[in-house]
Amino acid sequence: MKTMYRIGALLGVFLLLAGCSSLLSGFSIGNIADTAIGAAAGNPSDTAKMNQLAQAGTAVQSAAAEITPEQEYYIGRAVAATVLTTYKAWDGPAANAYLNRLARGLALASVLPETYAGYHVLIMDTDDINAFGAPSGFILVSRGLLRCASSEDEVAAILAHEIGHVSLKHGLHAISTARWTDAALQIGKFAAQNSDSQVLRDLTNSFGGVISDIVKTMVTTGYSRDLEKQADLEGVRILHDVGYDPMAMVRMLTAMKARLKPDGKDFAKTHPDPDTRIAYVTVAINAQTPVAVPTAAQARARQVRYQAALSKI
Amino acid sequence: MTKTRLMIVAMLICAVGWLSAADQKQMYVTVKTTQIRATPGYLGKPLGNLNYGDKVTVLDQPADAPKDWLKVTGPDGKLQGWINASSVSSKQVALKAGATASQSASSGDVALAGKGFNSDVEQQYKDEQHLDYTWVDKMEAFDVPPDQVSRFLTQGGLSEQGGAQ
Questions:
Q1: How open is the CA angle B56-B60-B64, to the nearest 5 degrees?
Q2: Which of A78, A113, A291 lies at the smallest CB-CB distance from B125?
Q3: Would the pLDDT of A186 be above 90?
Q4: How far apart are CA A6 and CA A3, in angstroms?
Q5: How far is the C-alpha of A182 from the C-alpha of A176, rounded, in Å?
Q6: Nearest to B117 among A74, A81, A121 (CB)
Q7: Looking at the 3D structure of chain B, how many domains does it have?
Q8: How far, in Å, CA of B154 to CA of A298, rounded?
Q9: Best residue in B37, B89, B95, B121 for a mutation probing chain A (most A CBs within 10 Å)
Q10: What single-letter DSSP state applies at residue A127?
Q11: Contact A74 B161 (CB under 8 A)
Q12: Is residue B163 a part of any domain in this protein?
């Protein structure tokens, strides 16, 4: 009996020292896959556990922590395709090419320089002032928002904010716990028996739910103030580290404020008040080391290519 | 006294676990394709391609290595160079040819590799929702080769390390 206590105590101390965070942070999608595979193989205890999981809506570790880059990529593609049912694409080859070069340069200074298939930018043909950073780097920017900018540094500020959302995986944070629990169950089942067409349909339904959560947040309700602040601050950090003037973010927010329609369906509805954003962005910029001033030739190069690409936006 | 002994045994078990984990140093590529480079930094000369799921072995890092870059050897063990730390994960993310989910059912991470939301799900979703992916495919085809990025940054007095170079 004494030995049993010792083993128990030893195990307890070991777990404590090992700091088994996975035991504390909810069921992981990997655990669920094992359970689903066991259930598919006819293991009664796994079948019972799957049913319990389904009924209880067990909290699974967050999608942002669990989802693979490849799955994030398919989510990003579907989110972009869905947004493009509301806003049409603007077919301006030179402007789109310019924004893609700019975004790739900025992304190098982000916490996620490469996504599964890279960062890509597309202009939306609307006067609305709006932009979306869909998962995995599918960035959509409206003509209305681009018209608020008057320099490359200011366009860089728009893209740096969106790269902030992408690299910090804010889209995945929009997936509700219940939705992700369901998706994790379906993914687990799919891993066990992917030839089953009903399982594929169930998984596709879960996928649809995930897309719906993200699109609703991005387009209708907006991210939380905290996530918007994170994207703003990451944006000014990226601007600074690449060498753009971080104050361009303040100039952009000021220009957007001047065009703000209080009852508008665009950023006015989904983003915090510009004055609040300007205040915390200014504090962050004041704490940065000064960015070296470009030479006259470098400043001219920026302005010339900006004008060439976006003067007719 | 007994407690002290238990504590020592537990710490030894942990140490063994940590040491064996440190020995492995295997990581997996998390982007569709990337390059192993001669020097740390995206503008370093590409030595060869790495694809999603490729296994790399992390080498001892030189003292002056930038924090975001890892010195690795590629899957064949020959190619040696640098890769950005954000483009690899210690979790296996994809099954390589010949492996099946059932062969690796002992690990949920591996069993899930390559499963879940994939091209089959996308196709089914696209059909059900009558979604048009034309512009998504077009935007994904906007390609910016690294030398273009480099030129773009240099001309504007910018760089991945800081501006007005």
A1: 115
A2: A78
A3: no
A4: 5
A5: 10
A6: A74
A7: 1
A8: 8
A9: B121
A10: S
A11: no
A12: no
pLDDT interval class at B21 (50, 70, 90): very low
Rounded Cα–Cα distance for residues A75 and A53 (Å) = 24
pLDDT for the residue B42: 86
Rounded to the nearest angstrom, the minimum Cα separation between A273 and chain B is 30
pLDDT at position B106 over 80: no
Distance, CA of A189 to CA of A183 (rounded, Å): 10
ipTM of the complex: 0.83
The answer to whether residue B106 is domain-embedded is: yes
Q: For chain B, give me the number of helices (H) and strands (E)? A: 5, 7
What is the C-alpha to C-alpha distance for residues B3 and B20, in angstroms, rounded to an integer?
26
Give the whole-angstrom CA distance, residue B41 versus residue B103. 37
Tokens found for residue A189: 């089942």
A125 interfacial to chain B (CB closer than 8 Å): no
Write down the residue that tokens 């020292």 correspond to: A17
Here the CATH number for the domain that contains residue B108 is 2.30.30.40
pLDDT score at A36: 55
Q: Is residue B5 part of a domain?
A: no
Cα(A203)–Cα(A186) distance, integer angstroms: 5
**Is residue B150 one of the residues assigned to a domain?**
yes
Structural domain harbouring B137: 25-155
Residue pLDDT, tens place only, A144-171 = 999 999 999 999 999 999 999 999 999 9
- A61's tokens: 């570790």
Residues 6+ apart with CB under 8 A from B83: B29, B34, B36, B37, B50, B56, B69, B70, B72
